[in-house]
Structure formats: C-alpha cells, structure tokens
Amino acid sequence: MNETIITTSKIRRNILKTENSKVLIIDDSEDILFLVKNILSLESFLAVPVNSAIKALEIIDNTFDAIILDLMMPEMNGIEFLKIFRGKKEFSHIPVIVLTAKLNTEEEIAKIFEIGANDYVTKPFLKSEFTARIKVHVGLKKSTEDLYRTNKMLKRKYKDLQKAIKREETLNEKILERTVELKDANEKIEELNKALEYSATHDALTGILNRGAILAFLENDIRRSKRIKTSLSLLMIDIDFFKKINDTYGHLVGDSILKQLCNLIRDSIREIDLFGRYGGEEFIIILPDTNVEQAKILTSRLLTRIREHNFLTNKINLKITISIGLTEYILDESIDLIIERADMALYEAKQSGRDCMKIH
Ligand SMILES: [Mg+2]
Fold first, then answer.
1. 228 within domain boundaries
2. Which of 9-18, 88-97, 132-141, 289-298 has the lowest mean pLDDT?
3. Alpha-carbon torsion 9, 10, 11, 16, what sign?
4. Within a domain: 193
5. Which of 151, 179, 202 is the last residue in one of the domains?
6. How far apart are the CA of 132 and the centre of ligand 1, in A?
7. Residue 20 near residue 66 (C-beta atoms within 8 A)
8. If you measure from the C-alpha of residue 77 to the centroid of ligand 1, how many angstroms do you get, rounded to a whole number?
9. Exposure winner among 186, 250, 287, 342, fewest CB in 10 A?
10. Which residues of 179-216 are buried (b: 16+ CB within 10 A; e: fewer)?
11. Total structural domains in the chain?
12. Who wins on pLDDT, 286 or 148?
C-alpha cells in the first residue's frame, strides 16, 4: 500500500531528483540556449535546446519533464506555441516555464498564466532561483504522474475486484440455483419413493396395509417378541355375511362397507397395533406387547362398536357384524402356526353363530 500513497516527502524527493529529468529549452537566441543548457546540465538535467517553436512542436513527446519557453520568437512566438501546446491533452501535465526579456504588463502576465504557463521568469535571472523553480516544477510533474499511475492502478484494482465480486455472486447464484434444483429433485424422488412404497404396502381400496405388508410386520413382531420375550396377540377378522351384502346391494355398496369398516377399526385400535387386509373380507390385527387377556378386552369393545355402528351407503343404511379369532403367540412357533391357530379360532366363532370372538 505504501507505494500507492503520494506523500509530501515523496514530492520533496521528486523535486530534489533532477537526474535524467529531460527539459526542452525553446529560444531563438543561441546565447540563451547555450546559457540555460549549461546551467541545467550542472544540475544534472538532461537539457534539449531548440531554436524555434515550430521545431519544438515536432520533437516534443511525453519524455520531457519541463519546457522553458521564450516569448519573443519569429515565425511562431511563445504565446502561439503555448496555445497549441496546451491544446494537446497528452502533454497537459508537462510544466511550461516562460523565460522572457520583455517586460510584460500585469494583465499580460496574467494572460500568460491563463493560457497555460506554469511559471514566469524574466531575463536576466538569478541562476539558483531559476534552477530551484525548474526543480519544483519537474518534481510536481513527476508527483502528478505518480498520482496518475496510482489512480490508474487503483482503478484497475477496483475493476478487478468488482469483476471478482461479480463472478463470486454469479457462482453463488448458480450454486444456489443448483442447490434448489437438487432439493426439488430430491423431494420429488422422495415423494415418488413414498408413493411407490405406499402402493406396494397398502391396499388400494381401504388404504390399510395389504397382505404382504401385514405379514411382513407380523414376522418382524414375532422376531421382536422372541428376542425380548414379550407377548403378542393376533386377531383374524371376517365380516359376517359379506357375500350377501355384495349379492344384494352390489359391489359398490360392498366396497363402501369395507372402507367404512376399516376406518372404524383403525379408529378403535391403539397406536402400536397394526391392521391389514388379509384377503377379500378378512383382516388381521397385530397387538404387540399384549397377552390374550388384554386382547380380549380390546376385541369385545371392537365387536360392540361395529355391531352398534350405522353403515351408510347411498342405497341403504346397514348394520353389520364381524367374527373374530383371537390367539396369542407361543414362543418359538412359526408365523404359519400362529395364523393357522387364529384361523381356527375364527372358524369356531363362525360356527358359534358369528358376531363373537373365539380364542385358540
Ligand atoms: Mg527571443
């Protein structure tokens, strides 16, 4: 950062540093050219003498650090030169020191500064004052150039920084877009997976677990019962005279009854219990951590609730009943055995006049 700051001491150093500072001397007098060249050379300036303003315009370039300009010259005088020279923007920072023998009026001197002169020295001049003035102007010119360079560099840095910021913003936007896209895609996949899983494990008509799913859960719960030695009860349910309902009122009524019954059972069981459709009008309920005595209470309640419920269809209001086979898991038996026993219990309930439960 230090090199980008132009300090007073730096200007001072620039002023004192005359070496390789190039000064153009424009004067029609060979004597003056010789004199000024010598004075400046003694101060280590690189002095370039030229005896006409027209020639000066031809050779001037940005390597010059100052111009010493005579006013009275044939062909093109100093004022004319100054007007043309100050019209050239690329040289605007090169100082022009007017050196004249003519005694100008106060207004004329003001005019000379107005046109673009940086200083005004009359002949004859004091050597040390003259060189001191040239040094100050050259030093200021160099400091101006330093400032200009610094400004340019800062502008470039600022531009680079803005570019970097813009790039960062664009990248961040893209990352954000990509993240949102990925999130959306993931959500869709998850939804799809859920839908797939749901349709693979649920009965389309009633929305309860299908046969495959309820049997898988039963197997899982049996393993759990074995492992932690806890009881498990199983209910096998069948709707009484369901065939008759279908035959009398049609399958749409039958389907509606099935849905209503499933909702009712779902509302009647506990959170931990699992309910699934085993086949046509047959259902299974798994009661984990429940022995047969506890299961009996739940089963009686269920029978009553269904018996008392009014099933509404668009054709008729119906009362239905169910029969239930209840059994408890016996340690180390297979899934087939417990289902078989629940089936037998259900068969017995049907044989005993239906709308009841039997325990096996
Ligand atoms: Mg002259």
1. yes
2. 9-18
3. positive
4. no
5. 151
6. 22
7. no
8. 8
9. 186
10. eeeeeeeeeeeeeeeeeeeeeebbbeebebbbeebbbe
11. 2
12. 286
81 CA → ligand 1 middle, Å? 13
Predicted confidence at residue 133, as pLDDT, reads 92
Query: Phi, psi at residue 119, to the nearest 5°?
Result: -155, 170
Query: For residue 136, how far is its CA from the centre of ligand 1 (angstroms)?
Result: 24
Residue 281 known to be catalytic: yes
Q: Please check whether residue 45 is in contact with residue 21, taking contact to mean a CB–CB distance below 8 angstroms.
A: yes
Peptide bond into 74 cis (omega under 30): no
Please identify, among 107, 126, 151, the residue that sits at the C-terminal boundary of a domain.
151
Instruction: Say if 27 falls within a structural domain.
Output: yes
pLDDT digits (tens, 9 = 90+) for 258-297: 999 999 999 999 999 999 999 999 999 999 999 999 999 9
Q: What is the pLDDT of residue 348?
A: 97
Q: For the segment 301-337, what is each residue's pLDDT rounded down to a tens digit?
A: 999 999 999 999 887 889 999 999 999 999 989 999 9
Residue 111 lies in a domain: yes
Q: What is the pLDDT of residue 1?
A: 43
Range of the domain at 120: 2-151
CATH at residue 280 = 3.30.70.270
Residues 6+ positions from 240 with CB-CB distance below 8 Å? 320, 321, 322, 323, 350, 354, 355
pTM of the full predicted structure? Answer: 0.52
Report how far ligand 1's centroid is from the alpha carbon of 36 (Å).
13
**Higher pLDDT pick, 11 / 298:** 298
Of the candidates 129, 181, 281, 282, the residue annotated as catalytic is: 281
Average pLDDT over residues 112-116: 94
Interval between CA 28 and ligand 1 midpoint (Å): 5
C-alpha of residue 216 to centroid of ligand 1, in Å: 116
Same domain, 13 and 106: yes
Specify whether the CB–CB gap between 285 and 303 falls below 8 A. no
pLDDT at 8 over 80: no
Residues 6+ apart with CB under 8 A from 160: none
